[in-house]
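--- STAGE predict ---
source: upstream dedup step, 1 unique chain passed
mode: sequence only
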Amino acid sequence: MIFKRPFEMRMKKSAGASAMRCAVAAALLLPAGCATKKPAGYQGYIEGRFVYVASPESGRLDRLSVARGETIAVDHPLFALDAEPEASAVRQAQQVLNSSEAKLADLGTGKRPAEIDVTRAQLKEALAQQKQAEAILQSDEAQYRSGGIAQTELINARGAAETSAARVQQLRAELEVDTLPGRQQQIRAQRRQVAADRAALAEAEWRLGQKQIQSPRQGLVFDTLYRQGEWVAAGDPVVELLPPENIEVRFFVPETMVGRLRMGQEVVVHCDGCTAPVAAKITFVSPQAEYTPPVIYSNENRAKLVFMIIAKPAPDKAALLHPGQPVEVALR
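--- STAGE serialize ---
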């Protein structure tokens, strides 16, 4: 009994030391085992790059042709603004162009046929007067030689003949000018005016066309920002679209993994409620760390650095994902 108690105490101390050594060993081995275990995936979320559709013109919203949640095709009508001021501007520009084109055509053809007929009639009358004046002059010259008339009458007859001949020459020149087109300088100037008026009409028609907007992309109508009857300022978005190709997956990987990733690498996206995993391809690897803590880099805190990675699913699979949705991404 005297030696039994010390022996038992030594045995208890030995057993306690062994248990402590086992606990320390387990504590040291447990983190090592956790560190070597590969994670099931990397956390991320779905991001949508929206298309905000607006008109460069202002006006009252007369018609909204889509509603939130609709999936529409390219060129589907989205909305229409009040277009009466632009329609009036188009009609005015068309009238100005018609007037310019008519003036150009008039310069290219000379005077009108009715005006030319008047000049021809005057020339015909002048020829008859010239013929009569020449006959009178011949008669007076014969009578003057025989002494039947005075020299003054002969001078008057010669003046009348010269006047009628000049009149005929004048009308012949006018008739020739009437059939000629306008001067080349006038025609060139009018052509430039016609081109300017056509450009003004095209601009007015373009402004009118901007009052009725069609969808530039296929996709989901994510939101409508105005109601019918409200005033829309120029450039203010009315419809918010989300094309399927604009849906992307953003996830984050640690610093030790970023060097292993490459553009075009395939990943698998898992999300709550998805009937099957969605395949995607990496399209962007961030060159800088995200959410870096404000500390000096060291071997101990390098594990805190994460890098953002962007991957895009195929457009036919993008409809399964929704902006803001949390996901888990696994590498292939």
